[in-house]
Amino acid sequence: MDRNFLTNTWLRVRWQTERLGAAGKIGLGLFVFSAVFFVVAVLPQQAASRVLMMRAEAIEQRLKAEPVQGNRRAPKIQGDQGLQAFYAFFPKMDSSPFWIKELVQVAAQRDVEITRMDYRMVYERDVKLARYEMILPVRGKYAQVRGFIADALRVVPAMALADVTLKRQDAASELLDVNLKFNLYLGGGGT
C-alpha cells in the first residue's frame, strides 16, 4: 500500500507540474530553491547571530561594570605632570629637518610636486612651544593633494594645517596649484 501511495503521489505531482507551464515551472523551481537556501544558509546563520549577540551583550555588561573598577586603579596626575606630559608630546627644536624630509617623502608617494618651500620659526612670548611655519606651493590633482594633506597630518602628528588656497588654470585643467600653510609645533620655545 505504501508503494502504491508513493507511485500515485509521484504521478499526481508530475501531472500538476505539466499543467503549470514554463512560467509556473520557473516559479516552482525558485520556490524550492529559496526553501532549500533558507534551510541550508539562513537558519545556521541565525544561530551564529544569536551567539554573537549574546557575546556582545556580555562584553557590553562587562564594559559598563569596568569604569567603576578602572577609576579606582587609575593613577591620578599630580600637580603639573599633565602639562609636562603634554609638552613631552611635541618634537624637539632640532628635529625640524627630519619632519621636512617626511613631508617631502609623503608628497613623492602621493605624486604631488612641491614647487618650493618657505619656512620661518616663530617664538611667542610666554609660550613653551615654537611654531615652525611652512608654506608649500604644490601642484597636483585634487585627489592627490587631498591625500597628501591627510597623510602629512597623520605622519607628522605635531603639525596643523593653517591655510589652503586652491587655484586652477582653467575649468578643463585637472591640475591644481595649491598653497598650503602648515604649522609644526616644536618643544622648547620661549619661556
Number of strands: 5
- CATH architecture type of the largest domain: 2-Layer Sandwich
- Low-pLDDT parts are none
CATH superfamily of the largest domain: Ribosomal protein S6/Translation elongation factor EF1B
Biggest sheet, in brief?
5 strands, antiparallel
Total domain count: 2
What is the name of the CATH topology of the largest domain?
Alpha-Beta Plaits
Count of helix runs: 4
Strand content: 15-25%
The helix content is 55-70%
Give the helices and strands as they follow along the chain: HHHEEEHEE
Instruction: State the distance separating the first and last CA atoms.
Output: 105 Å
Question: What is the mean pLDDT?
Answer: 84
SSE order and pairing:
Layout: H1 2-73, H2 81-89, H3 96-109, E1 113-114, E2 118-123, E3 129-141, H4 142-155, E4 159-168, E5 175-187
Antiparallel strand pairs: 1-3, 2-3, 3-5, 4-5
Helix pairs in contact: 3-4
Description of the structure:
It is a single chain. The protein is built from four helices and five strands; from the N terminus they run αααβββαββ. It is an alpha+beta fold and 191 residues long. It has two domains: 1-74, no CATH class; 91-187, Alpha-Beta Plaits (2-Layer Sandwich). Helix 3 (96-109) runs antiparallel to helix 4. The longest helix has 72 residues, at 2-73.
